[in-house]
């Protein structure tokens, strides 16, 4: 490789790429995997005749692309990166990691039961609070 | 392969959409009674015909439960972390049958002796009773000029407990300016709810007298005649929220045995972490 180094060193240093393009790859992708709101009222689902409270419910959801280096931001297991490499290098039929909820919070619901009794119940995992790539 | 994969996906999703209703996928096919398996939220989804509840609850009972809801949850429906109780379910039942055994004597604020029948069908096998109260509502909030002492004689008439006489309990308490009166009947109902009794028949004899001048006699007890029965339950099913669980999360699987050492020597562990963090920086 000595002669190639000599050749390279003789070449005039011309910027072979424009910087803005180069830095684009380090910007966070516009539609990266993140939490989105979806506020609904139980009257839209026609459930308000038996769900007394809450009036509004925001279950939230996860949407967006999973970046390749997912570990630092999504707490993904190493398996996710392996799956990404398989998709990119070995077999594109293996799906890329998906953007899904990783943590939830409960919801308290006040309902009128068919027999006319009233029930206050706390349900687990009813509101997504964090996204992850899996 | 890209194109064929896309066609395969389109075919799969159209096949799914052609499915009349995806919910049967969630339900056991053996025809067992599904409604008890699914929390009420999914029941509405699964049978889509969200029929209104057959019976509408008493407005005072609904008012009481709405106040309870505001105490326990935020406007968005998130359970408040400040609550210290362990129950994640509260059920209020209005009597499905009642009749007066003997007219009340208004001379001493006695209410008519009531026979009450409560149907507890909605209590599931996974819901364990922690506390239960009889809730009387004052027709209008009154501040009694002086303390009033009430004695309430409760007797469970059915189901009869084997051998012993009908369980009964006298309750006395002082009544000042209340909107509601709660009489704790946990000890009476515990054995019945544990034995999955679904209907409870009790008689209630309620008498109040003024502490200062019991001989005054006539004063009108502005109580609703028929009380509600409130059960505070801990639902142990998977979809119910267990706040104690969030208080004491289970140990992370990555934690090995040596992690216990850090618990034993937190100070050394902290300096160790600080040193390694500085080193990494």
What are the defining features of this structure?
heterodimer; A: 134 residues; alpha+beta; two-stranded antiparallel sheet; 4 helices; 7 strands; 24% helix; B: 281 residues; 4-stranded antiparallel sheet; 7 helices; 9 strands; 26% helix; 26% strand; globular
Summary, kept brief:
Chain A contains four helices and seven strands; from the N terminus they run H-H-E-E-E-E-E-H-H-E-E.
Q: So how many helices of chain B?
A: 7
Shape of chain A: elongated
**What's the pLDDT, averaged over the residues of chain B?**
66
What is the succession of H and E elements of chain B?
HHHEEEEEEEHEEHHH
Number of strands of chain B: 9
**Largest sheet properties of chain A:** 3 strands, antiparallel
Helices and strands of chain A, in order, run as HHEEEEEHHEE
Q: End-to-end distance of chain A, in Å?
A: 44 Å
Summarize the helices and strands and which ones pair or pack:
The complex is a heterodimer of chains A (134) and B (281).
Chain A: H1 2-10, H2 19-24, E1 34-36, E2 40-41, E3 51-53, E4 56-57, E5 61-63, H3 71-74, H4 78-90, E6 99-112, E7 118-133
Antiparallel strand pairs in A: 1-5, 2-4, 3-6, 6-7
Chain B: H1 2-18, H2 40-47, H3 59-72, E1 89-93, E2 97-102, E3 113-119, E4 127-137, E5 148-158, E6 168-175, E7 180-184, H4 186-194, E8 199-210, E9 228-235, H5 243-247, H6 259-264, H7 266-280
Antiparallel strand pairs in B: 1-9, 2-3, 3-8, 4-7, 4-9, 5-6, 5-8
Write structural notes for this entry.
The complex is a heterodimer of chains A (134) and B (281). Chain A is built from four helices and seven strands. Chain A has helices at 2-10, 19-24, 71-74, 78-90, and strands spanning 34-36, 40-41, 51-53, 56-57, 61-63, 99-112, 118-133. By secondary structure, chain A is an alpha+beta fold. The model of chain A has no long low-confidence stretch (mean pLDDT 85). Chain A starts with a helix and ends with a strand. Chain B is of the alpha+beta class and 281 residues long. In chain B, the strands form two sheets. In chain B, strands 2-3-8-5-6 form a five-stranded antiparallel sheet, with no helix packed on it. In chain B, strands 1-9-4-7 form a four-stranded antiparallel sheet, sandwiched between helices. Residues 12-38, 104-108 and 247-269 of chain B have low confidence and may be disordered. At the A-B interface, β4, β6 and β7 of A face α2, α3 and β1 of B. β7 (118-133) of chain A pairs antiparallel with β1 (89-93) of chain B, so a sheet runs across the interface.
């Amino acid at each position: 490789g000595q002669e190639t180094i000599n050749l390279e060193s003789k070449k005039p240093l011309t910027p072979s790429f424009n910087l803005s393009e180069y830095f684009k790859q380090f910007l966070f992708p516009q539609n990266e995997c993140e939490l989105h709101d979806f506020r609904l009222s139980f009257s839209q689902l026609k459930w308000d005749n038996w769900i007394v409270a809450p009036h509004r419910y925001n279950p939230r959801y996860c949407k967006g692309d999973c970046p390749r280096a997912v570990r630092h931001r999504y707490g993904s297991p190493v398996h996710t990166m392996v799956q990404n490499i398989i998709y990119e290098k070995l077999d594109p039929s293996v799906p890329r990691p998906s953007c899904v909820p990783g943590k939830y919070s409960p919801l308290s619901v006040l309902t009128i039961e068919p027999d006319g009794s009233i029930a206050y119940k706390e349900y687990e995992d009813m509101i997504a609070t964090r996204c992850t790539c899996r | 392969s890209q194109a064929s994969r896309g066609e395969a996906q389109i075919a799969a999703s159209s096949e799914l959409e052609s499915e009349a209703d995806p919910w049967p996928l969630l339900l056991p096919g053996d025809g067992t009674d599904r409604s008890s398996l699914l929390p009420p939220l999914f029941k509405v989804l699964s049978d889509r015909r969200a029929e209104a509840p057959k019976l509408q609850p008493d407005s005072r009972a609904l008012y009481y439960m709405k106040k309870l809801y505001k105490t326990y949850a935020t406007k968005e429906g998130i359970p408040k972390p400040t609550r210290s109780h362990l129950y994640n379910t509260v059920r209020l039942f209005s009597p499905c049958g009642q009749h007066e055994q003997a007219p009340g004597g208004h001379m001493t604020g006695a209410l008519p002796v009531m026979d009450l029948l409560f149907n507890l069908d909605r209590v599931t096998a996974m819901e364990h009773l922690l506390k239960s109260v009889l809730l009387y509502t004052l027709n209008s909030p009154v501040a009694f000029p002086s303390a009033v002492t009430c004695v309430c004689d409760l007797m469970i008439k059915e189901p009869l407990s084997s051998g012993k006489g009908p369980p009964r309990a006298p309750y006395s308490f002082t009544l000042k300016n209340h909107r509601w009166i709660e009489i704790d009947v946990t000890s009476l109902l515990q054995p019945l709810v544990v034995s999955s009794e679904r209907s409870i028949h009790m008689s209630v004899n309620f008498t109040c007298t003024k502490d200062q001048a019991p001989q005054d006699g006539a004063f009108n007890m502005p109580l609703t005649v028929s009380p509600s029965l409130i059960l505070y339950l801990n639902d142990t099913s998977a979809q119910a929220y267990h706040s104690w669980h969030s208080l004491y999360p289970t140990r992370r699987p990555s934690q090995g045995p040596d992690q216990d050492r850090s618990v034993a020597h937190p100070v050394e562990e902290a300096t160790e972490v600080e040193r390694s963090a500085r080193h990494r920086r």
